[in-house]
Design goal:
By secondary structure, the protein is an alpha+beta fold. It has one domain (38-207). It contains 2 helices and 7 strands. Strands 3-6-7 form a 3-stranded antiparallel sheet. A two-stranded antiparallel sheet has the order 1-2. It has a two-stranded antiparallel ribbon with strand order 4-5. It is elongated and about 80 Å long. The termini are far apart.
Length: 209
């Protein structure tokens, strides 16, 4: 009768190969989870933009307005300490003014911030403060807002946008590559979240059109 041989143990090379395969699989799973998380947060940001659009529709339907809120409050009535994040600050004022009859798209405190620490000359909102707040997206960055009629006849749409860490970037209304006109013309405005990467004008931006 032949003797059964004991199976040889793994060699060092075999063990290294197995570990490399496991590490590769874990890397792929991590990438998948990160992508799924980012996509889920983008969907939430898109839903929030839809909430803002509903509030804008109520604002436009009010005969006292008839058009979306302006891109900037700096019209002589409001004294600004800076000119950062103007569009979204204007939107927050419009939806939280004493005479606004519609519903504010956000009521949670964690959706508001005054990251650039600017104030108006007089109190413009129901908050009991002169602070000019911004709406924050899923990544705790202010949304970008433009009323497109403010940029007709060649007027520059470039604005300075301040990130929560103090970084300044330039933003401007987005134009269609095919048509050469502003995206979202049917709405008359643009709302933009910078998305997971925090950069303006990249593929992961979440937009209103």
């Amino acid at each position: 009768m032949k003797r059964l041989r004991h199976a040889a143990g793994f060699t060092l090379v075999e063990m290294l190969v197995v570990l490399a395969v496991i590490a590769g699989m874990m890397g792929l799973v991590s990438i998948f989870l990160f992508k799924a998380k980012d996509e889920g947060e983008r969907k939430i940001a898109s839903a929030q933009i839809q909430q803002i659009k509903v509030a804008i529709a109520a604002y436009v339907a009010d005969p006292r307005h008839g058009a979306p809120p302006p891109t900037s409050l700096a019209d002589g009535k409001v004294l600004l300490d800076n000119d950062f994040n103007l569009g979204i600050e204007s939107l927050v004022v419009a939806f939280n003014a004493e005479d606004f009859d519609g519903e504010s798209p956000f009521t949670q405190e964690d959706r508001f911030a005054n990251g650039d620490k600017d104030q108006s000359k007089v109190q413009l909102t129901r908050f009991g403060k002169k602070d000019l707040f911004e709406y924050l997206d899923q990544w705790h960055r202010p949304y970008v807002y433009f009323r497109l009629s403010d940029f007709e006849r060649g007027r520059s749409g470039v604005q300075t946008y301040q990130l929560p860490d103090g970084t300044m970037i330039e933003v401007a209304p987005v134009k269609s590559d095919k048509l050469g006109t502003y995206a979202g013309m049917a709405d008359g405005y643009q709302i933009i979240s910078l998305g997971p990467d925090g950069e303006f004008g990249t593929k992961d931006d979440v937009v209103s059109w």
